[in-house]
Protein 1
Amino acid sequence: MAVKIRLARHGSKKAPFYRIVVADARSPRDGAFIARVGTYDPRKNPSDIQVDNDKAKEWLSKGAQPTNQVRKLLKISGAL
């Protein structure tokens, strides 16, 4: 089973709010997920990024692959 760390979109129309989740690569963007690792709010200035670094590092050590955007967020937060 391929596991990815990716963004799940929440919030209303034109007001996005994202959760950083660990999910099966085959599941839909906002579908079922295994664990929630953090949140990302791009509307605030500066963007609000909250990541549980311990959980993120644990999933990365287990082989979960982050998407490009999540990789950038994890670098900013210090998990990578």
Note: The chain has a mean pLDDT of 92.
Protein 2
Amino acid sequence: MIYLELIWAFFKIGAFTFGGGYAMIPLIQSEVTSRGWMSTEEILNFIAVSESTPGPFAINMATYIGTETAGFWGAVCATGAVVLPSFIIILIIAKIYSVFRTNKYVAGCMSGIKPVVIGLIATALYTTAEAVFFPDGLTLGIFTGAAFWFSLVILALDILLVTRKIHPITIIAISAALGIAFGYADKLWI
């Protein structure tokens, strides 16, 4: 039964997400946490891992959640289900591309979907930032904790490096090293 639940959940995620992996985060969080497969914190931790590993974000997430939930076959079910809608849609579009290319209704539909994608990505950014910077809610106490300031320093440095056009792999490596160093320093801070 768990395999069918994984297939259904990840088929919905794959079918109703436009805009790539980041736009999937709210739907993944909703599906996975409502079923009790993982907590929001576990999902956020794996988002960080998924971003630093090769491969498409959605596939990494589906494979990981499937494995954690139901082992190898869970990973196969979740991964297959998350890519199946895209595969089907691309096959259909490839078959009738000439009709879609000039259709004003399809163009209008795509114009309406684009702002939604930006909204979904913004929601993912907000929920991730909230979990990183305000894990216990927005209180004055967060400003006295080292974790908040360490995360803020890493964020500021990452923004600086991105604006300097530093390669993303270098930024990830620097951020990981700083996270390890700050994690060790946080233990000393207490």
Note: The chain has eight helices and no strands.
